[in-house]
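> example.struct
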């Protein structure tokens, strides 16, 4: 009896897995390919800003000079 239950479960799990795989393939086949590389209308995903300010990464201070000299 337990053997029959186990086999029926395995059969149902196999059918469910094949249905899931089939639906994934169908969705992948019908989805539009969106190329996001260079020359694409969709863009590369990188946001380019329009700021005119220069980015300052550090201010030259005595503490910075001490750290930089110690790191050399």
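> example.seq
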């Amino acid at each position: 009896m337990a053997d029959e239950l186990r086999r029926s479960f395995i059969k149902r799990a196999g059918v469910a897995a094949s249905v899931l795989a089939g639906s994934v393939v169908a969705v992948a086949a019908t989805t539009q390919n969106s190329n996001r590389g260079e020359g694409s209308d969709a863009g590369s995903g990188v946001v380019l800003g329009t700021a005119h300010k220069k980015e300052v990464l550090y201010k030259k201070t005595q503490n910075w000079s001490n750290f930089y000299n110690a790191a050399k």
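> remarks
DSSP finds two helices and no strands in the chain.
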